[in-house]
């Protein structure tokens, strides 16, 4: 069953496949690297890029099973929570967001959580110890008892349907790039992208948080979705800039400079700091280190 996520009234519409835009940058050109931007932020105005690709099959499963509520998990700056709330509003589904960190309860909401709440999401804050055990029955059961039967989505929306949904991203890029770089938070997008890319193209997941666990997580997701490892991929763990939603002066300066040089390619938008800026920051550093042979075409996924 397919579910079409409607567009807001008056919006001209999202589009798939999303555009692949060539960008000339002298800092990469001196290393013989050609840059392309996969504008997945244009997939849907409220569910950009990988969020749209990951949510669509899960929304279909929820509707097909007769659920009227989505319950999912995320940190205080989770784009997944924001996108799930928007999707729920557009489809007429109730949404519940379980947020990591009970110390946030009662504080003013940041823009991400405020946006989710404005779209009707009920926010439930869990202490960090309980959040780590969020999928265990003694933590999950009370949530479902409190908020009613629900279709449960994992943190970041990364599960087998989501991974399979992201294979289309790799197919859309096809042979246009030799290397595809994408931000990696929970691993689902990288797992699907790599599976969809044609050989000999390879994918690089840029970890946006500390921990060094994402390689194992991507392997687990591919095992569940495809029965084993698929595609040529790796995780770059060096560019998180201190952790999830953390920045530093070097990243901020890079992001501002890139946006200023390539305003047309970005439609005048700034670089989103949590995911996109770190992806491009990694591409430029890897190029300077000689990680890409001259002539390499690198596509960076702009997830929004």
Structure description:
The two termini are 27 Å apart. By secondary structure, the protein is of the alpha/beta class. The chain contains eleven helices and ten strands. The longest helix has 16 residues, at 49-64. The protein folds into two domains: 20-48 and 159-301, Rossmann fold, CATH 3.40.50; 68-149, Rossmann fold, CATH 3.40.50.1100. The strands form two sheets. A six-stranded mixed β-sheet has the order 1-2-10-7-8-9.
Question: What are the key terms here?
Answer:
single chain, 304 residues, alpha/beta, Rossmann fold, 2 domains, 6-stranded mixed β-sheet, 4-stranded parallel β-sheet, 10 strands, 39% helix
Radius of gyration: 19 Å
Shape: globular
Task: Supply the helix-strand structural class.
Answer: alpha/beta
Low-confidence stretches are: none
Following the backbone from N to C, one meets helices and strands in this order, namely EHEHEHEHEHHEHEHEHEHHE
Average pLDDT number: 92
Instruction: Give me the side-by-side strand order of the main sheet.
Output: 1-2-10-7-8-9
Helix content: 25-40%
Give the terminus-to-terminus CA distance. Answer: 27 Å
Counting DSSP E segments of at least 2 residues, the number of strands comes to: 10
Main sheet overview: 6 strands, mixed
Q: From the 3D coordinates, which CATH architecture of the largest domain would you assign?
A: 3-Layer(aba) Sandwich
Q: Helical segment tally? A: 11
> Total domains, how many?
2
CATH topology of the largest domain: Rossmann fold
What is the CATH class of the largest domain?
Answer: Alpha Beta
> What fraction of residues sit in β-strands?
15-25%
């Amino acid at each position: 069953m397919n579910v079409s996520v409607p567009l807001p009234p008056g919006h001209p519409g999202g589009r798939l496949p999303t555009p692949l835009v060539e960008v000339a940058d002298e800092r990469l050109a001196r290393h013989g690297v050609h840059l392309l931007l996969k504008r997945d932020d244009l997939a849907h105005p409220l569910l950009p890029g990988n969020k749209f690709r990951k949510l669509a099959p899960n929304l279909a499963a929820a509707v097909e099973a007769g659920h009227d509520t989505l319950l999912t998990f995320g940190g205080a700056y989770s784009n997944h929570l924001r996108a799930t709330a928007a999707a729920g509003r557009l489809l007429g589904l109730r949404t519940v967001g379980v947020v990591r960190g009970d110390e946030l309860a009662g504080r003013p909401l940041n823009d991400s959580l405020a946006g989710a709440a404005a779209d009707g999401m009920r926010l439930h804050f869990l202490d960090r110890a309980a959040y780590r055990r969020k999928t265990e029955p003694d933590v999950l059961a009370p949530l479902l008892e409190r908020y009613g039967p629900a279709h449960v989505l994992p943190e970041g929306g990364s599960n087998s349907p989501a991974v399979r949904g992201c294979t289309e991203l790799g197919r859309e890029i096809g042979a246009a790039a030799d290397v595809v770089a994408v931000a990696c938070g929970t691993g689902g997008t990288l797992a699907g992208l790599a599976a969809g890319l044609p050989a000999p193209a390879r994918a690089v997941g840029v970890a946006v948080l500390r921990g060094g666990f994402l390689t194992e997580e991507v392997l687990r997701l591919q095992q569940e979705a495809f029965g084993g490892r698929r595609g040529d991929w790796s995780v770059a763990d060096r560019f998180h800039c201190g952790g999830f939603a953390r920045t530093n002066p070097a990243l901020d300066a890079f992001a501002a400079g890139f946006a200023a040089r390539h305003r047309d390619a970005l439609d005048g938008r700034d670089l989103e700091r949590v995911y996109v800026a770190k992806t491009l920051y990694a591409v430029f550093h890897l190029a300077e280190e000689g990680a890409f042979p001259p002539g390499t075409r690198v596509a960076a996924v702009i997830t929004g």
